[in-house]
Amino acid sequence: MAEVLVYVDHVDGAVRKPTLELLTLARRLGDPVAVHLGAGADEAAKTLGEYGAVKVLAADSAEFADYLVVPKVDALQAAYDAVSPAAVLVPSSAEGKEIAARLAVRIGSGIITDAVDLEAGDEGPVATQSVFAAAFTTKSRVSKGTPVITVKPNSTAPEAAPAAGTVEQLSVSFGEKSTGTKIVSRTPRESSGRPELTEAAIVVSGGRGVNGAENFHIIEALADSLGAAVGASRAAVDAGWYPHSNQVGQTGKTVSPQLYVATGISGAIQHRAGMQTSKTIVAINKDAEAPIFDLVDYGVVGDLFDVVPALTEEVKTRKG
Amino acid sequence: MSLRIVVCVKYVPDATGDRHFAEDLTTDRESVDGLLSELDEYAVEQALQISEDADDAEITVLTVGPDDAKDALRKALSMGADKAVHVEDDDLHGTDVIGTSAVLAKAIEKTGYDLVVCGMASTDGTMGVLPALLAERLGVPQVTLLSEVSVTDGKVNGRRDGDTATEQLEASLPAVVSVTDQSGEARYPSFKGIMAAKKKPVESLDLDDLDIEADEVGLDGAWTKVDDATPRPARTAGTVVKDEGEGGKQLAEFLAERKFV
Ligand SMILES: Cc1cc2nc3c(=O)[nH]c(=O)nc-3n(C[C@H](O)[C@H](O)[C@H](O)COP(=O)(O)OP(=O)(O)OC[C@H]3O[C@@H](n4cnc5c(N)ncnc54)[C@H](O)[C@@H]3O)c2cc1C
Ligand SMILES: Cc1cc2nc3c(=O)[nH]c(=O)nc-3n(C[C@H](O)[C@H](O)[C@H](O)COP(=O)(O)OP(=O)(O)OC[C@H]3O[C@@H](n4cnc5c(N)ncnc54)[C@H](O)[C@@H]3O)c2cc1C
């Protein structure tokens, strides 16, 4: 069977969920071969094998951490040369897309980004995308070269399918261009202890209606009662009430959870672009005319300072 | 020596309009007004600031797009860019991102550059990969997705806020930079700027000028093919209740029905 390269997103060998989704999708196209760069390959290989990786190509080198993007492209290209895959799948993170794009040019292939589903087709993999702020669903394919496709988080449920997951060392040579952009320093983001925004099953977001950083604890309390991640609109982020890394929307994160709760958010097109594909949408807004109500499965017209604490209490009571 | 800055800007259908696909499954540019992609205003702004900090700099704005795309160039010129280059050719219709990056790279080389500044993503295609593609093709460092950027002594420095960490980056010129909407509000064109823009040069280039064959671009030359585009089914109207003191409870009831609680 054809092999399919899957680029592994991990933190020191702890494989992130979008990669498990990619392995699951890759199995529809062929035998997944995982590419693991940096430390922790042996640890990661256990998980990768469990989700179907027949092989793990591993390379660890200081260049991956010291220089931006290009050393990783060099490594993925080395894996491509070693395997001659039928397709290359990369998680749709900002960095993932850049790596994928540069690889595509090097190997003379087309690229599709932000796929939300993948299936095998007569002329290669068919990617489903959600475009124009999720107003259209498209089906596309790469028509030249080996398909390079990036896939958004939450595109499918990871399914275990044990395979060998044998680790093989990948040898990579870095060119002069690889060290062009130096990473002078790196400050890891502090974890909030809540689920990762893009991976969460439930997201509770606050907007301008929250009216101050000091009020966001109301949103956080609701999120914690539901086991949810916290999101924010750009208005709330620009006002400095919540970190930009929590922004949902066109220039923030795209989320596609089972449940999205929008509080004090009007529902501008750029916000909708980041949450419109959520399975169930509910909103709390004091303006009955707010466009967010066009999207909801359930909406409450009311003051969030009344409704949200009451909801939180009720959820806690029901959960016992 | 003068710092030559090229800013890549895209002319896009207005995101607040009703965007559609045309029959050939390319973007329908007829039904919705076009404008300078809002995220590219941030690129123009940062280029202007870099140029203000430099002893001597010249900003060229560059677009690949149809005739109307001149509007995007004019807007950038009225913000303060010095001159514009417009790549237009009927054979470009339907070009995908790999083709667009090839055309832009050729045009940038022809114009001459020390620094290329892009937006973080277009507001229509929204792929966010073009800057990386340009760096690959031009063979220069990519310093992308910056929320802060500065150029001093032939080096570009910037801050990249990633998923898991914030990174401080450094590269030597020439380089390709892209900036996010966190980099600082873009200025509004002044009346003087708008009047001045009318006199600034706009150079037109076609595929011949760039030594690009028609079959390397356009819909037929594209590396990807869109087979189908379907409007998302309208959501069936949900229940909206007014809070009369029970709104929180009612919402909890709904969430329980759907098994979220
Ligand atoms: C290029 C570009 C990119 C953008 N990217 C993004 C993005 O990624 N994400 C994003 O969110 N936006 C983005 N925006 C901004 C977007 O256009 C809107 O400005 C923004 O989403 C508005 O945020 P909001 O809904 O919180 O604020 P508003 O539109 O001001 O809405 C606030 C809402 O809160 C309600 N409210 C007020 N008080 C209360 C109360 N006590 N109880 C209940 N409800 C209350 C009001 O009725 C109102 O509907 C972008 C814009 C541009 C131009
Ligand atoms: C399903 C689908 C269908 C599409 N159909 C069409 C279509 O019919 N016609 C069409 O034109 N596009 C179409 N596109 C988009 C097209 O493939 C890309 O827009 C284009 O090639 C560049 O990618 P991008 O807009 O996503 O740029 P990004 O990678 O998001 O852009 C990043 C930055 O690159 C620069 N840039 C991007 N494009 C240009 C440009 N043209 N000139 C100057 N600078 C630029 C800007 O600085 C921009 O901020 C489609 C996209 C999808 C997903």
UniProtKB/TrEMBL annotation, chain A:
Pfam families: ETF, ETF_alpha. InterPro entries: DHS-like_NAD/FAD-binding_dom (IPR029035), ETF_a/b_N (IPR014730), ETF_a/FixB (IPR001308), ETF_alpha_N (IPR033947), ETF_asu_C (IPR014731), ETF_asu_C_CS (IPR018206), Rossmann-like_a/b/a_fold (IPR014729). It comes from the Bacteria. The keyword Electron transport applies. Residues 4-187 form the Electron transfer flavoprotein alpha/beta-subunit N-terminal domain. Its cofactor is FAD. Signal peptide: none annotated. PANTHER family: ELECTRON TRANSFER FLAVOPROTEIN ALPHA, ELECTRON TRANSFER FLAVOPROTEIN SUBUNIT ALPHA, MITOCHONDRIAL. The electron transfer flavoprotein serves as a specific electron acceptor for other dehydrogenases. It transfers the electrons to the main respiratory chain via ETF-ubiquinone oxidoreductase (ETF dehydrogenase). Heterodimer of an alpha and a beta subunit. Belongs to the ETF alpha-subunit/FixB family. This is Electron transfer flavoprotein subunit alpha/FixB family protein. It comes from Streptomyces marispadix.
Automatic annotation (TrEMBL), chain B:
PANTHER family: ELECTRON TRANSFER FLAVOPROTEIN BETA-SUBUNIT, ELECTRON TRANSFER FLAVOPROTEIN SUBUNIT BETA. This is Electron transfer flavoprotein subunit beta. InterPro entries: ETF_a/b_N, ETF_b, ETF_beta_N, Rossmann-like_a/b/a_fold. It comes from Streptomyces marispadix. Keywords: Electron transport, Transport. Residues 24-214 form the Electron transfer flavoprotein alpha/beta-subunit N-terminal domain. SUPFAM superfamilies: Adenine nucleotide alpha hydrolases-like. Residues 227-247 are annotated as: Disordered. The keyword Electron transport applies. Its cofactor is FAD. Pfam families: ETF. The electron transfer flavoprotein serves as a specific electron acceptor for other dehydrogenases. It transfers the electrons to the main respiratory chain via ETF-ubiquinone oxidoreductase (ETF dehydrogenase). Heterodimer of an alpha and a beta subunit. Belongs to the ETF beta-subunit/FixA family. SMART domains: ETF.
